[in-house]
Amino acid sequence: MKRYFFDLVSGERSQYDYRGMVYPDPETALQLAELMALDLGIQPDSAWSGWTVDVYDVHGERCFSVPVKEPDLVAA
Predict the structure, then answer these.
(1) Rounded to an integer, what distance in angstroms lies between the CA atom of residue 12 and that of residue 6?
(2) pTM for this one?
(3) Which among 14, 36, 37, 68 is least surrounded, fewest beta carbons within 10 Å?
């Protein structure tokens, strides 16, 4: 079991996950990041368009970066 941190990042701003979550494997952490990006992509007014969900391990190394897609691209 490892702890993963899910930061929301844009060109100008970042929202850091200081608590993280424990998962049994990196694939599960990636699935959560993809779900988070999908959820953010369907928010009204495309507020999260252009952001990414960056997943880091406890050593601060980035494991994954999942882009938040525009709502019309999410439905495709």
Answers:
(1) 17
(2) 0.87
(3) 14
Query: Could you give the number of structural domains in the chain?
Result: 1
Kindly tell me if the per-residue pLDDT of 74 is higher than 60: no
Q: Which domain holds residue 21?
A: 2-74
Using CA atoms, how far apart are residues 19 and 6, in angstroms rounded to an integer? 9
Question: Taking 60 as the threshold, does the pLDDT of residue 18 lie above it?
Answer: yes
Alpha-carbon distances of 57 from 9, 32, 45, 48, 72, rounded to whole Å: 16, 14, 31, 23, 32
Fill in the amino acid letter for 2: K
